[in-house]
Design goal:
This protein has 406 residues and is mainly beta. 13% of the residues lie in helices and 51% in strands. It has six helices and 21 strands. The strands form three sheets. It has a twelve-stranded antiparallel beta barrel with strand order 1-3-4-5-6-7-8-9-10-11-12-13. Strands 14-15-16-19 form a four-stranded antiparallel beta sheet, with no helix packed on it. The N and C termini lie far apart (58 Å). The relative contact order is 0.14.
């Protein structure tokens, strides 16, 4: 795609070189975990994205350094508005390019039940899975979707496909605006879609036939896709930064047959900070910047075991996990305590505590740790008592435990 337009605050080359050297020397990269309170779309948000020249997104892996400071601004703009239709209380519509894409948060899963514009009306009987929360580096999901659609009141379609999402990279980004973001998680989304096209007058008979059949299974969708050589493929990279609800950069390639096109859109951190009050992300930005007061005093009156895994409590996840045991103990009232864990070898390690609705209340950033025993203070003094989930990542393998604080 042809690059044109002006530079967006082009970074001085020598400064970028210094930043690159510092990032390479660093031994650890802070973890970014996507959660529904911090990253699910919100009603009323209006995003003004700037088109930039599509960059080389680089390879997958930890500790990546993405220098996008030289990306040129292009002529295109993309406005995305999230609204709540008057006939629903739980389904948002994202309006962009005269198209409405509907999203629905069901439990911990973000779904799309359909899409419509002045040409297409698509309704999924098997909704498309967009994301599950929480989602961290190394996590992945793969799910089919199926539905029916109509094109310009002339063609009736059976629509089917498959979506794969993987958090395949993490690291540091220098944005087109010159900002340095150190808590970046990249999602790689591959969407493949096919369709059976029929004259629109066959719609009543086809819908009656589909209603009489058992619900389509994942195997039936996969089998139908194997026989379709003309699938539309959408390959997208989303770059999320800690403390910001929406991707800072999105790079998308659409391919159908021999034709393909790539475009990229930049949503600056400053633009996202102008959105409606977002306490979850403001707190995360404070933590990222090292401004959070943290601390909190322990309460006298004894120590209580809240969670334990490994030695004395059953095995941890199989498959060579370096985490052999862990325990979370609280002091007195249970709102301050200590996480203790043991690693059998040098490994990356991160931990977080979430509320029952997915809000992050404590985060231990990812770091490369040596073999042996480690500890970290856990401060929940600003939380109300209730049920929480402790999640631990060790070399990409995940352990979870329920915590009840009374």
């Amino acid at each position: 795609m042809r690059q044109k337009g002006k530079h967006i605050n082009r970074f001085v080359k020598t400064n970028v070189s210094i930043i690159v050297i510092l990032m390479i020397v660093s031994e650890s990269v802070s973890a970014q975990v996507l959660t529904s309170p911090a990253n699910a779309p919100r009603e009323g948000d209006l995003l003004n994205e700037v088109q930039v020249a599509p960059p080389d997104v680089g390879e997958a892996g930890r500790g990546r350094m993405w220098d996008f400071s030289d990306l040129h601004e292009m002529d295109g703009k993309l406005k995305v508005e999230y609204l709540l239709p008057s006939d629903t209380t739980d389904t948002l519509m994202a309006i962009a390019r005269r198209t409405r894409r509907y999203t629905l948060l069901r439990g911990d899963t973000l779904l799309s039940p359909g899409t419509e514009n002045n040409q297409w009306l698509i309704r999924y009987t098997m909704p498309e899975t967009l994301l599950r929360y929480p989602f961290a580096y190394g996590d992945s999901l793969s799910a089919p979707f199926h539905g029916t659609s109509q094109y310009c009141e002339r063609t009736y379609c059976r629509t089917f496909g498959h979506t794969t999402v993987k958090a395949d990279a993490s690291g540091t980004m220098v944005t087109p605006g010159g900002d340095t973001l150190r808590h970046v998680l990249r999602l790689h989304v591959v969407r493949r879609e096919g369709a059976d096209l029929l004259p629109v007058y066959t719609r009543p008979a086809m819908e009656a036939l589909l209603d009489s059949l058992p619900p389509f299974t994942a195997d039936s969708v996969h089998g139908r896709m194997q026989g379709d050589r003309l699938l539309r493929t959408t390959d997208t990279y989303h770059f999320f930064a800690g403390g910001y609800r929406y991707p800072v950069l999105t790079v998308t390639t659409e391919a159908y047959g021999d034709d393909s096109a790539t475009e990229a859109f930049y949503l600056s951190p400053r633009e996202q900070e102008t959105l409606a009050y977002d306490p979850e992300n403001e707190r995360l930005r404070e933590n990222v910047a090292g401004l959070s007061t943290g601390g909190g005093s322990s309460v006298n009156g004894g120590t209580f075991l809240l969670a334990r895994g490994g030695e004395g409590s059953g095995p941890l996840s199989p498959g060579g996990s370096p985490l052999t045991s862990y325990s979370l103990t609280s002091y007195g009232g249970g709102l301050s305590g200590q996480l203790t864990w043991y690693l059998s070898r040098n490994a990356s390690f991160a931990a977080a505590i979430f509320t029952s609705d997915g809000k992050t209340v404590w985060l231990l950033p990812e770091a490369i740790l040596s073999a042996g025993q480690h500890t970290s203070v856990v401060d929940l003094s600003r939380c109300t008592r209730g049920v929480f989930t402790l999640t631990i990542w060790a070399d990409g393998r995940k352990e979870t435990a329920k915590i009840t604080v009374k």
